[in-house]
Amino acid sequence: MKLKTLEITGFKSFAERTKIEFMPGITGVIGPNGSGKSNIIEAIRWVMGEQSAKGLRGDKMADVIFGGTTQRAPLNRAEVAITFDNTDHYLHSEYSEITITRRLYRNGDSNYQINGVNVRLKDVYELFMDSGLGRESFSIISQGRVESIFSEKPIERRSIIEDVAGVYKYKQNKDKAKKELVDVHDNLTRVADILYELQ
Ligand code: ATP
C-alpha cells in the first residue's frame, strides 16, 4: 500500500485546489516558516477522520476552512482527498486504489466518501484500523508528540504499543462481546422473573 496523491482545496492556507503526487522513495516538503508545510500533514490527518479541532491547531472545526487573506475572500468549503495504491490489499478492501474524501461546509454540513460513495466516519476508521495508519496512528508524528510519548503514563504507553501491535481491534471486539454478555444476562434474569410470575 502506498500513498499516491493528496488533493487539498479550501483547507487552511490552501485556497486553490492543490494536488501533491507522492513518487517512490522519500518525499520531503520544504518551505519558509508559515508557508503551509504542517497544513499538509494536518490535511492528511483530517481526511483520515481527525475529530479534534485543537489537534489541528484550531478552536472549532470550521477553522480548517480557508479563512481568507487581504487578497482573497474566505471560502465556504474545505475538501481533502487522499488516494492510496492498494494493489497489495494491505487495507482491507477489494479495491486496488482507494480514495477517501472529506468535506466540511461553513454551515456545519460534512461528509466522507470512499471511492466516491458516501460513507460514515466509522467506515473510514475501520478501513485504517490496525493498518498502522489513521488519525491516531504513529505513522504521523507531529512536533512535540515524540516527547509526549516518553512522558506518558505506562498504561497509556501500553495502549500505544497495543495499537501498533494490532491488538486494538480485538480489544474493541472483546469489549463489545462483554457488553452483549451483560445484555444477555439481563434478558435471562427478566425471563426468569416472568417464569416465576407464571408459576
Ligand atoms: P513552520 O515552518 O513555521 O512550522 P509551516 O510551513 O509548517 O510553518 P503552517 O503552520 O502549515 O506553516 O501554516 C501556517 C499558515 O497557515 C499561516 O500563515 C496561517 O495563517 C495559515 N492558515 C492556517 N489556517 C488557515 C485558514 N483557515 N485560512 C487561511 N490560512 C490559514
TrEMBL record:
Function: Required for chromosome condensation and partitioning.
Subcellular location: Cytoplasm
Domain-level remarks: Contains large globular domains required for ATP hydrolysis at each terminus and a third globular domain forming a flexible hinge near the middle of the molecule. These domains are separated by coiled-coil structures.
Species annotation: Weissella hellenica
Protein name: Chromosome partition protein Smc
Annotated binding of ATP, by residue: P32, N33, G34, S35, G36, K37, S38, N39
Family: Belongs to the SMC family.
Subunit architecture: Homodimer.
